[in-house]
Amino acid sequence: MAEDIYMLVQNKYMRLQRQAEQKCAEAIEAVYKQHPELKQITDETSSINSALIKASLKHLPEAELESLKEQLLSFKQKRDDYMQKNNIDKSIFTPQYVCNDCRDTGKLDNGMRCHCFNDYYSQYKFGDADMKILERENFSTFDLSIFPEKTASGVNQRAQMEHLKAALEDYCKKFPQVPKKNIIISGLTGTGKSFLTNCIAKALDERMFSVIRLSSYKMINDLFDLYISDSTEFNAELDRLCRVDVLIIDDLGTELMKENFTLNTIYYLLDKRLELDKAVIVSTNLSPKKLEDKYSDRIMSRLFNSNTANTILLSGTDVRLKRNNKTQSEN
Q1: pLDDT > 90: percent of the chain
Q2: Alpha carbon distance 200, 171 (integer Å)
Q3: Topology, domain 121-330
Q4: Do 303 and 291 form a contact (C-beta atoms < 8 A)?
């Protein structure tokens, strides 16, 4: 399992590097299209630099080497002057990596593993069992036909989900530049809460954001086991949950109440992520009133902060059986 997770992390780094290099190449091409003279100067600079390298390898006379060096410095200065005169940012010629410390390689210059490697490893460690679920449940497999147009109570469940799908797709496309990063989805069992959070997880992971998705029950159990056995590892895992780009907590309210540990841990996570401006996506079967009865005021104030969170209340009937039957018939 550890080797599988290691390969997932390495593959993610490769995707991140390709993405950064492709964006850099596209930006350079756009600048050269607008400034052909800059491209000509750059090509001439590269040509002189190449000639200097060859001359050095051939051990040509020092005078010839010095002449090439002077030409190279002259063209570099000419290039810098042109860019400054035309307000061209030099940074466009350097790939913009997600992690500047390791340049999306996972390793620092001193050979040590980068902090971001631990974040990605933790992401897959917590989410590996869910990867197959995310392949089945995402925006591209979102089937609105399983939701009734009108329930017995008069709810147009299909229209409700169609609106939410569009809104959440827009959220994922614009993330993290969204007015409110946090989302609370509340509703009865089978109304589509977990499916929606899976859609968000898949979409943001594909955009190279680090995502940890796990049930509230598993999160508290795993952290508690570490807490009572290894405080160092507990602190490390808690820190990763605080710092990952997106933390998705499924079925909030199902976790076991382990004296003060559960409430203190949930509060710490929510408070720290609010401080770090990190997204929290929560699904729960409990209504806001039942959540208020279960959790402290300080937890509720972080969950339902109107400045940072959107609250979605799902209504309608349980569609799990219909969805499962449709999946089985297709297979």
Answers
A1: 40
A2: 9
A3: Rossmann fold (3.40.50)
A4: yes
Predicted structure pTM score: 0.63
Residue 3, both tokens: 């080797």
Asked if the model's pLDDT at residue 147 lies above 90, the reply is no
Four-residue CA torsion sign, 277, 214, 6, 173: negative
pLDDT band at 323 (very low <50, low <70, confident <90, very high): low
Q: What is the pLDDT of residue 320?
A: 67
> What is the tens place of the pLDDT at every residue in 74-95?
999 999 999 999 999 988 889 9
pLDDT over 70 at 69, yes or no: yes
Across the chain, mean pLDDT equals 85
* pLDDT for the residue numbered 296: 86
Find where tokens 């796990």 sit. 214
pLDDT of 189 reads 83
Distances (CA, A) of 98 to 114, 119, 241: 12, 13, 19
3-state per-residue secondary structure call for the chain: CHHHHHHHHHHHHHHHHHHHHHHHHHHHHHHHHHCHHHHHHHHHHHHHHHHHHHHHHCCCCHHHHHHHHHHHHHHHHHHHHHHHHCCCCHHHHCCCCCCCCCCCCCECCCCCECHHHHHHHHHHHHHHHHHHHHHHCCHHHCCHHHCCCCCCCCCCHHHHHHHHHHHHHHHHHHCCCCCCCEEEEECCCCCCHHHHHHHHHHHHHHCCCCEEEEEHHHHHHHHHHHHHHCHHHHHHHHHHHHHCCEEEEECCCCCCCCCCHHHHHHHHHHHHHHHHCCEEEEEECCCHHHHHHHCCHHHHHHHCCCCCEEEEECCCCCCHHHHHHHHHHHC
